[in-house]
Specification:
The protein has about 775 residues and is mainly alpha-helical. It is built from 32 helices and ten strands. It has three domains: about 200 residues, no CATH class; about 280 residues, no CATH class; about 150 residues, no CATH class. The strands form four sheets. It has a four-stranded mixed β-sheet with strand order 3-7-8-9, with helices on both faces. Strands 1-2 form a two-stranded antiparallel sheet. Strands 4-5 form a two-stranded antiparallel ribbon. β7 and β8 form a beta hairpin. The termini are far apart.
């Protein structure tokens, strides 16, 4: 099969392919094409596209729509599965089609072979594709001369070419190769026809000629949802469907893993230090247990009817095992990508390097590719992600459980409740969540695209967010990090194409890499259940009723006594846990990093001394905040330094607060100078956010909640950029290049738009 020749541009030539024709048109007329397309109305764009591609699908991702609701083969049009990104909903926008023209014109078809293969994978799981079998043959998609050899089949007997000689040789078998060629054939012809239609007033002979040799590509208008300070990762991935994929992304992935690793480390530290945070996380996890789901008769699962004593022990074991395993996996992944990026940069800078990768880099690339896929499945399996989605507070009313064998409590199945209707937004969210979490489903398009579709659904219909709990959103974020790791490795062309051949010719290598780098990541799950049952008795009082640890109550002698007593028992519990984890051979780096920090504990009770000052005798919001600032100066030097910087010009309503805090500012001025940190001038909205985040104590004048939008706005005001990753994770990075690694990751509350008291304290500690 050869690529078609353009019917208009250069009709006398029999050697120009549509790719070459497109390259020459864009070389001289790209700016004109962009201006004319941007100026067209949506209706004119739609009519033009339908004229170029009859029966173009109307909706975004038509392949998912057909996969979800199959149609008879006789009625099936293959466009949705062969060209899923060619649809009116997406192409009528300004950016996608211009991005595709720009990318396909400036890079040869072989650059997009793997990308085009991934776009057609969903169809292989349906009955719409007819299998092509040519034993012993493969297809070559390498760019070069002559162009007529591109996509030609060749005989490739097994073992004819060794892996070290050509890693990617023979990867594309005819069943895939012919479809990739068909995709590119029609796609390039469509793009050439699009350019010709836009430039309809330019004579044919002038289309491939111009005064410029090869001008720089003009910038394409990007999505309005993204800006220099706020970006949505799903938008970048969506636009990536249409543009080129160049260079390695190892450094970028390393920073994302690092941000998630620091968040996992802070999560473990807070579990160790703060009994209130520990209790909140346990309660949140318990809300997602299968015991919360009822059967059709509104009865609980037999294992949860009476809530036996081992229940809390098993729950504590699950929460801590999850936390330690996630930390260990992220630590191992971060180290591996750091090493890979370093080795790759050294190899690329070596003038004597060979054409193919050194064996040590190949081993890391293929070992990571195998390991990341394995640990992602393990984390989903061990955290019971699918079951937890069904049992989550926003969705449990739509599902029920049933036992296949009444005598076997583990033979549990989850089903939709009859006569309980979902809204369209809920049904779409549930469909995507089920396929993301169902490790047995294996949808060919991969979890990265499903996660992208979930975030795009939320952007189109924000109501869908309310059906995703905070716990589910956080775990989806972790899964999203591993999807980005796999994407970076898959995009490492052409060596990743030889993955299967590497496994065949080097048996046991990738499995050995997994054991070496990730072997101990899940050791926390090996702690005996009996230990968790016994250890849970130490903190049993903490788990029953908030009065057992009254951290939210104003300080008094009785309250301080309860706090100290609970903290003593909590420390004994953790001493036993740490000793047991060491016996289970948890990686030493985990215990060293998490438990090296000095614990912050409630100070002994001392009656407050009255200070007869003008400030002390005054009343109102201003005096309370000034008093709170003074107490912070004494008790929390590190946190107060940051808080004292967040003062400045505010609106008229906040002038009273500023005047009341002048004395506190003067006392901390010297400490700021020593730290060589400037004073930030912020508005009242940002001031209020950081006053709440960094205030460590009880004061009715300090709000107990923070709006998520206010937090994002405050971080941007402090010089950070905000990037929405997959799931609920947001990455905040300083705009200053010298502080590139000073990033922090927070999770957006999905079930509500506000951060609660416990989360505020947790984020405040991390900022401090």
């Amino acid at each position: 099969m050869a690529l078609q020749i353009s019917r208009r541009a250069d009709p006398k030539s029999t050697s120009s392919s549509p790719a070459e024709t497109l390259n020459r048109i864009i070389q001289y007329h790209e700016e004109t094409i962009q201006k004319r397309w941007i100026q067209k109305s949506k209706i004119k764009r739609k009519n033009m596209l339908l004229g170029l591609w009859p029966n173009m699908p109307l909706s975004h991702r038509p392949d998912l729509a057909v996969y979800r609701n199959p149609v008879p083969i006789k009625e099936m049009n293959m466009s949705p599965f062969m060209w899923p990104y060619i649809n009116l909903e997406d192409l009528c926008k300004t950016e996608p089609l211009l991005l595709m023209v720009q990318a396909r014109a400036r890079y040869w078809p072989g650059h997009f072979t793997f990308h085009d293969f991934k776009s057609i994978r969903l169809g292989f799981k349906t009955s719409y594709y007819t299998k092509v079998i040519l034993p012993g043959y493969a297809m070559s998609f390498r760019d070069g001369n002559p162009a007529t050899k591109y996509g030609q089949p060749f005989y490739s007997p097994k073992g004819h070419v060794k892996f070290v000689q050509d890693p990617a040789q023979g990867f594309w078998y005819p069943d895939v190769g012919f479809r990739v060629l068909a995709v590119q054939d029609r796609l390039y012809y469509f793009l050439v026809r699009f350019c010709e239609e836009i430039l309809h007033d330019i004579p044919t002979k002038d289309l491939l000629e111009g005064d410029l040799s090869c001008p720089d590509s003009p910038p394409v208008v990007t999505s309005k949802l993204n800006s220099s300070t706020i970006r949505f990762f799903a938008i970048d991935v969506f636009e990536g469907f249409y543009k080129s994929h160049l260079g390695t992304q190892f450094k970028r992935v390393e920073s994302i893993i690092g941000s998630m690793l620091f968040a996992a480390e802070d999560h473990l530290r807070s579990l160790r230090e703060d009994p209130d945070y520990f209790r909140t996380i346990l309660t949140q996890r318990e809300e997602h247990s299968t015991g919360r789901l009822l059967d059709l008769n509104s009865e609980k699962h037999p294992s949860f009817i009476h809530k036996p004593n081992p229940y809390w022990g098993q729950l504590i074991g699950l929460v801590l095992s999850e936390a330690f395993s996630i930390f260990c996996v992220l630590e191992a992944t971060h180290n591996a990508f750091y090493s890979l990026n370093s080795d790759f940069e050294n190899w690329r800078a070596d003038p004597s390097r060979t054409v193919y990768l050194p064996s040590r880099i190949s081993k890391t690339v293929y070992g990571l590719f195998y390991s990341i896929a394995s640990v992602g499945k393990d984390l989903m399996n061990r955290s019971h992600l699918l079951e937890s989605i069904y049992s989550s507070p926003p969705l449990r009313e739509y599902f029920y459980f049933t036992l296949e064998d009444p005598n076997n409590p583990k033979s549990i199945e989850f089903r939709r409740r009859p006569r309980v209707n979902m809204t369209e937004a809920c049904a779409d969210a549930v469909y995507l969540l089920e396929h993301i979490a169902n490790k047995m489903d294996g949808m060919p398009i991969g979890n990265r695209y499903l996660l992208t579709e979930l975030d795009l659904l939320i952007l189109r219909n924000p109501r869908a967010k309310s059906f995703i709990s905070n716990w589910v959103g956080a775990h989806i974020s972790i899964l999203g990090v591993f999807c980005e790791c796999l994407e970076a490795l898959e995009g490492y062309q052409p060596w990743i194409l030889g993955y299967m051949r590497y496994r065949e010719e080097s048996p046991g290598e990738v499995e050995g890499f997994y054991q070496t780098e990730f072997g101990g990541s899940f050791n926390a799950y090996h702690v005996p259940t009996l230990f968790w049952n016994n250890a849970s008795q130490i903190v049993r009082d903490l788990l029953i009723g908030e009065t057992k640890y009254p951290v939210r109550e104003p300080r008094s002698k009785e309250v301080v006594k309860k706090l100290c007593k609970t903290e003593e028992g909590f420390d004994r519990f953790w001493d036993k846990v740490v000793a047991q984890l060491k016996m289970a051979r948890i990686p030493e780096v985990c215990t060293n990093r998490v438990f090296c920090r000095e614990l912050k504990r409630t100070a002994p009770w001392e009656p407050a001394k009255r200070k007869k000052t003008e400030e002390g005798e005054s009343t109102g919001l201003g005096s309370k905040r000034a008093k709170a600032t003074k107490e912070k100066t004494k008790n929390s030097e590190g946190t107060d330094r940051l808080s004292s910087q967040i003062v400045g010009q505010v609106n008229e309503n906040a002038k009273e607060i500023i005047s009341m805090t002048e004395e506190a500012d003067a006392k901390t001025k010297d400490s700021i100078a020593k730290d060589e940190k400037g004073v930030f001038t912020v508005d009242s909205r940002t001031f209020k956010v950081f006053t709440t985040l960094l205030f460590d104590g009880i004061d009715p004048s300090v709000p107990a909640e923070i709006s998520w939008d206010d937090l994002v706005n405050a971080m941007i005001a402090m010089g950070f950029t905000a990037e929405k990753l997959f799931g609920s994770a947001w990455l905040f990075q300083p705009m200053d290049p010298e502080q590139e690694r000073d990033y922090i990751l927070f999770h957006e509350p999905y079930e509500t738009s506000k951060l609660d008291y416990v989360t505020i304290r947790h984020y405040g500690r991390r900022l401090g």
